[in-house]
């Protein structure tokens, strides 16, 4: 061991979180996994470890990617480290024993391979009691339609991280309209380049800024849908 090697378990909570931001930036998956385990052992809520250590760290990566300081290979390593941490948190976020709330099909749209945010939404929805069928990345209209027919969910969730792929959400919604299926589902959309205005313009039911908003929105829209069905 070199003299300046950092022992993660010796750090205070604040120092550890800052170190994890650095480790995420450097794509150090094992260190991120260790950091997450330490936070959980110290009694941190899984959601706090997720947002304060991982999501906040990825925000720094995103800013430097935008500014041309980091490039795709480094960002891939950071994403891999983030996924390592998320894999530890997933069962903890899901094991809430929440009552069944409804079902969601979710996927990233065609042409887009970003999946971290979508995975997070899926995890949080499962934690809140929703059954989630994750279609993965790069989904065509046909892939969404097939899954909707097979799964008959309450909610269709779509994710897009690129300004070039977000218009594809409208293609999916327009196809649902053409087929007379639009009103069968609550359509929720999300992803960094989207906003309320865009969601409204493409005919979605809701724009979700983040995973926590997705859960709250889903709960409220599903209970409204069920109340309407009962009335
Ligand atoms: Co990409 N990338 N990327 N990238 N990448 C962005 C999106 C970018 C903003 C970076 C930048 O320039 N600042 C930029 C897009 C610019 C634009 O379109 N305006 C960009 C670019 C340009 C690209 C490439 C084109 C780069 C290239 O090849 N030259 C390329 C495109 C590949 C493709 O998809 N065809 C590319 C590739 C990659 C990697 C493969 C290296 C990697 C993805 C790895 C992976 O996902 N497995 C990657 C990453 C990691 C990013 C950034 C840095 C981080 C994204 C992320 O995971 N954030 C990103 C920068 C940024 O977003 N600021 C960037 C963390 C995550 C928790 O947040 O995904 O926003 P987010 O999800 C949130 C909310 O948005 C919301 O809830 C989530 C959780 O709170 N949400 C939903 C998301 N989906 C939802 C769905 C819902 C509800 C809420 O449904 C109901």
Summarize the SSE layout with pairings.
Elements (H helix, E strand, L loop, with lengths): L12 H13 L3 H13 L4 H21 L5 H23 L7 E7 L7 H12 L2 E5 L6 H11 L3 E5 L8 H11 L7 E5 L5 H7 L3 E3 L2 H20 L1
Parallel strand pairs: 1-2, 1-3, 3-4, 4-5
Helix pairs in contact: 1-2, 1-3, 2-3, 2-4, 3-4, 4-5, 5-9
Bound molecules: CO-5-methoxybenzimidazolylcobamide.
How is this structure best summarized?
Helices cover 57% and strands 11% of the residues. It has 231 residues and is an alpha/beta fold.
How would you describe this protein?
By secondary structure, this protein is α/β, with parallel strands linked by helices. The protein has 2 domains: 92 residues, Methionine synthase domain (Methyltransferase, Methionine Synthase (B12-binding Domains), Chain A, domain 1, Orthogonal Bundle), CATH 1.10.1240.10; 133 residues, Cobalamin-binding domain (Rossmann fold), CATH 3.40.50. 57% of the residues lie in helices and 11% in strands. It contains 9 helices and 5 strands; from the N terminus they run ααααβαβαβαβαβα. Strands 2-1-3-4-5 form a 5-stranded parallel β-sheet, sandwiched between helices. α5 links the parallel β1 and β2. α3 packs antiparallel against α4. The structure holds CO-5-methoxybenzimidazolylcobamide. The site of CO-5-methoxybenzimidazolylcobamide has 36 residues, from α3, α4, α5, β3 and β4.
Tally of strands? 5
Give the CATH topology of the largest domain: Rossmann fold
> Ligands in the structure?
CO-5-methoxybenzimidazolylcobamide
What share of the residues lie within helices?
A: 55-70%
Poorly predicted ranges? none
What value does the average pLDDT take?
93
- For the record, the count of structural domains works out to 2
- The outline comes out as globular
CATH homology superfamily of the largest domain = Cobalamin-binding domain
Under CATH at level 1, the class of the largest domain stands as Alpha Beta
Enumerate how many helices there are, as a single number: 9
Can you list the strand order of the major beta sheet?
A: 2-1-3-4-5
Order of helices and strands: HHHHEHEHEHEHEH
**Cα-to-Cα separation, first versus last residue:** 68 Å
Structural class: alpha/beta
What Rg, in angstroms, do the CA atoms define?
19 Å
In terms of DSSP E residues, the strand content is 5-15%
Tell me about the biggest sheet? 5 strands, parallel
Query: What's the CATH architecture name of the largest domain?
Result: 3-Layer(aba) Sandwich
């Amino acid at each position: 061991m070199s003299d300046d090697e950092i022992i993660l378990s010796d750090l205070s909570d604040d120092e550890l979180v800052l170190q994890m931001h650095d480790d995420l930036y450097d794509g150090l998956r094992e260190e991120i996994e260790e950091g997450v385990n330490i936070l959980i052992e110290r009694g941190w809520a899984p959601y706090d470890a997720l947002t304060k250590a991982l999501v906040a760290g990825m925000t720094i990566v995103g800013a430097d990617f935008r500014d041309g300081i980091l490039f795709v290979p480094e960002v891939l390593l950071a994403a891999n480290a983030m996924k390592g941490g998320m894999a530890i948190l997933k069962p903890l976020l899901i094991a809430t024993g929440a009552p069944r709330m409804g079902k969601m099909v979710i996927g990233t749209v065609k042409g887009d391979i970003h999946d971290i945010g979508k995975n997070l939404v899926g995890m949080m929805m499962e934690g809140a009691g929703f059954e989630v069928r994750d279609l993965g990345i790069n989904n065509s209209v046909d892939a969404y339609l097939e899954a909707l027919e097979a799964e008959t969910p309450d909610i269709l969730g779509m994710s897009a991280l690129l300004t070039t792929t977000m218009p594809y959400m409208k293609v999916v919604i327009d196809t649902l309209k053409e087929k007379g299926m639009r009103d069968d589902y609550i359509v929720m959309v999300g992803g960094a380049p989207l906003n309320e205005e865009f969601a409204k313009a493409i005919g979605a039911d809701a724009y979700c800024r983040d995973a926590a908003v997705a859960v709250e929105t889903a709960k409220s829209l599903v209970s409204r849908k069920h109340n309407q069905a009962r009335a």
